[in-house]
Amino acid sequence: MAPACKRRLSGKALANGSVGVIYQVFENVAEKYDVMNDSMSLGIHRVWKDILVHKMNPSPGTLLVDVAGGTGDIAFRFLNYVRSVRERQLQQKLRHHQNLSWQEISKSYQEEKSNPLGDSQVVVCDINKEMLKAGKQKAQHLGYSEGLSWVLGNAEELPFDDDKFDVYTIAFGIRNVTRIDLALQEAYRVLKPGGRFLCLEFSHVSNPLLSRLYDLYSFQVIPVLGEVIAGDWKSYQYLVESIRRFPPQEELKAMIEDAGFLKVDYQNLNSGIVAIHSGFKL
Prior knowledge:
51% of the residues lie in helices and 18% in strands. The protein is globular and about 65 Å long. The chain is built from 12 helices and 7 strands. The termini are far apart. Strands 3-2-1-4-5-7-6 form a 7-stranded mixed beta sheet, with helices on both faces. The model is unreliable at 1-17 (pLDDT under 50). It is of the alpha/beta class.
């Protein structure tokens, strides 16, 4: 994004956290979003996202909606995971049919090659055009196209039919919606019966000493990194403050249950720096 396209945000505006301000924050950071994530988390965000997808454990044929997923990190991991599962299934099938002719083996491989995802699809939905643009550019660069689509949409009013998806994910996005309760209701609406909700988000650290160190790093280091790497102190100051305003693990769990989800639980990662919340539409 050209510097001329950026609009500086005042501290007062950031504190208000309105839809327009949040949109502007992510428009500002879109171009450097991946670089900043690596710098802010020392690269650990990649491990957290891997854990999320392994917890999802999608099978071929899964239909996923990844909300606030503009840069495509979860979508790409999902596609890689499903493709790997599909390949293992084919290998197991061939091992269990040792008497297949080479023609039959060749046919199986050709079928696999023509449908490596087993009809799996991931829809990346994001409210911010610049984030989607960054994600599409990354997908093109990495060679992702099949089974992947991009939709401009608001987490609080998703542009999808009821009972459409098998899995709903939102990674580092739900704290930036204006009404978390509405976003959770929409997640419930678009999931099929039996569908799963998964949320990866910064949370509240349980260890007092680690919590103090984490606060020091967050408020003293991250905004400086934002200024040095992205030329934008205020936007990264907002991102840190949004983490501190976000509900703790048990409170978010109760909100997810209030939206109608059952069997809700959460897993703390790195002493609660982030948590993965899970629930089912049953």
